[in-house]
Amino acid sequence: MEIILNLDAHCIETGIRKEYNRAVTRFLRNGAFDRQTGRKVEILKFLLENLHFHMIRSKCETYLREKNNHASIVEDAGRLEIFVNGKRVYKGKTAIDED
Question: Could you say which of 15, 16, 41, 72 would form a disulfide bridge with 83 (CB–CB 3.0 to 4.6 Å)?
Answer without folding.
Answer: 72
